[in-house]
Amino acid sequence: MNKREYCPSAKNRKQGYADTQTNKEENMPRVSVLTPIYNTNHAHLRECIESILNQTYTDFEFIILNDSPENIELEKLVLSYDDARIRYIKNDKNIGISKSRNKLIELACGEYIAIFDHDDISHTTRLEKQVKFLDTNPYIGVVGAWAHWFGAQDFIRKNPEYDTDIKIRLTDVCAIMHTTAMIRKSVLIDNNIWYEEQYTPAEDYRLWGQLMQFTDFYNIQEVLVDYRCDTDNASHRMQTRQTIVHESIKLQICNKYPMYRLAFERGLRRVRVRLFGKIPLIKIKNHWALLFDCIPLVKIKD
Prior knowledge:
The protein has helices at 10-14, 21-26, 42-53, 72-79, 97-107, 126-136, 163-169, 185-190, 203-211, 234-237, 239-256, 258-268, 288-293, and strands at residues 31-37, 60-66, 86-90, 112-115, 121-122, 140-151, 155-157, 182-184, 216-229, 271-273, 282-284. The chain is α/β, with parallel strands linked by helices. α7 crosses α12 (258-268) and α11 crosses α12. The longest helix is centred in the C-terminal third of the chain and has 18 residues, at 239-256. It starts with 9 loop residues before the first helix and ends in a 9-residue tail after the last helix.
């Protein structure tokens, strides 16, 4: 994908202000919340929108991209919210989820991009906690969180906390839950990384696989999003294709990062490890980071 022009609204936002760096920065939101919608259930979309508008952190723009342009009622629903932070955009025609996500990135003016799906619910402190974390950890490019699945299933989806653990886990599953993620926009733009249409509906897993070599990951060990799980969402409707695409991405990651995969496979087994010669033997199961540290590492060149 070629380099693009970003945040096309930026020029318009700067008109009328003195041409100083201070004013330019003051008038741009720090966070862009990106939500593509497609024939979304109206009640679910209201919950989604209001969960963002009620955030404790307020320096954001909320870009809602309608990929079902013929759905006028959906447009009326979004426009019924009288909040200047909402930017509503409608595609001329349906272009699909991956192209819509890329368009949203192009439109985003924020330093940080918060991914948020159209039928989920963000806890009120989600943006505040993720912004604070990225501000204090400049080497982290992607921060996720735990999610509460509700609807057809009811449980808490927990993912590993630290970068090494996450990358080990990525050799098997998508260890950053997409709808919980906040990303430094510069990490995507500087490395020309975009969602790839051929990997839909597992485009998020592919994105994390592509970012592994460029940045570090982190998952806040707290539920910050309620993820709606029902038989009508896109993941369920495309389950067979998702399984096939997921396995393809997984194979690519495993081939590119064999040491992470080896650590994952060793972590599946119960092992006995003696630490420092003085600590008693302990049993460890699924303790990814410790096992990874025990494996002789070599630099893997692309």
